[in-house]
Structures are given as C-alpha cells and as structure tokens.
Write a sequence for this structure.
C-alpha cells in the first residue's frame, strides 16, 4: 500500500482507544455509587431525625430552606465530580472526586430524609435561597456581610455553559476547569452552611452544616494547591 492509498476504516478503528465502553462503565459505576451513598444518607437521616417532634422545623424555616437548596447544590457537585473522573487519569484528582461524590451524595440523602421526617415538602413556592432573608439568631440579618444576597441563585453554582464546557473538556483542560469550578462551588457551599448556622440551633442541621464548613474549607485549600500545580 502506498502512502497515497486510503487507510482502511478497520485499521483506524482498531488504533483508537476504547473510550466508549470504558466511559459507559464509569458512568454506571458512578451512578451506583451515588445511589448507595444516597440510600445510606436517607437511612441515617431517618434514624437521627425524630418523627413528629413538636419542635420540627416548618416548611418556610431556614432549616427546611437550607435542606432543599443544599441538596440541589450537592447534586451539582456530584455531577461535576463524576464528569471529572471520566476525563482524567490523574489518580489524586480521581480520588478527590470520589470523596466528593460519596460525601455529598450521603449528605443529600440525609437532608431529603429530614424533610420527609419533618413533614414538610421537598420543594417550595418561594425562590431559592429565600431563607437567607430570615433573621439570624441574634435578631439581625447578616446579608450585608456576605457576598450573596437572599433570593439570588445559589452561590457557587456552575452555569449551564460551564457544565457543557466541562463535558467537552479532556485531560489537563478538564482538570483545571473542574478545580476552578469546584473551588467556587465549595466556597458557595461554605457560605450557605455558615448562613444556616447563624439561623438555627437544630442539632441535626448544625452538625451537618458545621461539617460542611470544616471539610469543604480543607478541600478548597487542597484544590487551590492542585490548581496552582497545573497553571
């Protein structure tokens, strides 16, 4: 065969890495992991939230609003982390993404169970983050000291265009984009957790929100180091 002759299609196909089947397996594995973590979280939430308690938060409370909005926030972090695991071979980043998928899926399951146990709906007619307009425990409003105003979209959430860019990226490009998006996402999560801590004494909520602040701030510092290594 001369250099001018066309290369048989079968040769081109054989030379390509089998990304399709591997990607499908990763997606299935990720979905199963999310499901297991969610179920574990739901069971934990049901076990720790007393049913029918007179002190259960109401449907428009800061606790209920936080539980609804943080589920949405966590779910996007899980989606981004599953996308990253499929787009990089870096084991350090893949392990971090796995930790985020597991932790945030479980927490989302807990908050879902809280709402059910409290007898309040999973959705609200009020705009997202409206609970941040509620007064703090000391009777004030901390909105002036925060970068996010009540009633605006949740802080740190990636836009549809940013999510599509992550889906389209591979390798180093995907790593850098994911780190940039996840750092901003975690910063928003910390802000939301600190906001509810200023508005509740509910032990379930303060324990989870306090854990979010502590863990995600550590992950922000870690991801900042990883990002600096790549740019």
């Amino acid at each position: 065969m001369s250099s001018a002759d066309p290369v048989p299609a079968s040769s081109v196909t054989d030379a390509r890495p089998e990304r399709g089947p591997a990607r499908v397996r990763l997606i299935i594995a990720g979905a199963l992991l999310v499901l297991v973590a969610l179920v574990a979280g739901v069971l934990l939430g049901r076990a720790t939230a007393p049913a029918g308690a007179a002190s259960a938060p109401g449907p428009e409370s800061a606790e209920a609003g936080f539980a609804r909005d943080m589920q949405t926030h966590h779910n996007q972090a899980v989606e981004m982390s599953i996308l990253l695991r499929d787009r990089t071979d870096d084991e350090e980043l893949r392990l971090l993404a796995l930790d985020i998928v597991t932790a945030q899926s479980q927490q989302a399951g807990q908050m879902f169970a809280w709402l059910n146990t409290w007898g309040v709906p999973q959705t609200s007619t009020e705009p997202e983050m409206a609970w941040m307009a509620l007064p703090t425990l000391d009777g004030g409003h901390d909105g002036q000291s925060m970068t996010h105003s009540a009633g605006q979209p949740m802080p740190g959430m990636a836009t549809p265009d940013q999510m599509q860019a992550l889906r389209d990226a591979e390798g180093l490009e995907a790593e850098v984009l994911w780190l940039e998006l996840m750092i901003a996402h975690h910063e928003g999560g910390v802000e939301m957790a600190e906001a509810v801590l200023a508005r509740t004494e509910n032990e379930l909520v303060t324990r989870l929100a306090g854990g979010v602040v502590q863990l995600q701030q550590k992950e922000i510092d870690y991801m900042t180091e990883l990002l600096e290594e790549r740019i």
Q: What stands out?
A: The chain has one domain: 16-48+76-228. The two ends are 44 Å apart (CA to CA). Confidence is low (pLDDT under 50) at residues 1-18. The domain at 16-48+76-228 is CATH 1.20.1260.10 (Ferritin).
